[in-house]
Recover the amino acids of this structure.
């Protein structure tokens, strides 16, 4: 896996999870995978960072990111 993720990539990963598991409840709560990526995404925006080291993500966020990348790669190979 790559050592860093860009802002557009983390946004794409969040959208992947939102499509796979739409928000629920009156508060439109994100699924755990999208939620784990949402905080680092927001911090990247606030800090005006273009990329983030994957090692800085939680284990859940790293797993969500890995699953997104594997699904994206599989879709590209079709």
């Amino acid at each position: 896996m790559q050592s860093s993720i860009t802002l557009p990539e983390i946004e794409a990963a969040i959208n992947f999870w939102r499509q796979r598991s739409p928000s629920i409840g009156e508060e439109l709560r994100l699924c755990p995978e999208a939620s784990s990526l949402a905080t680092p995404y927001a911090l990247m925006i606030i800090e005006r960072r273009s990329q983030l080291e994957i090692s800085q993500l939680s284990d859940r966020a790293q797993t969500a990111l890995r699953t997104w990348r594997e699904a994206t790669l599989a879709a590209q190979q079709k």
The chain has a mean pLDDT of 91. The longest strand covers residues 4-6. The two ends are 21 Å apart (CA to CA).
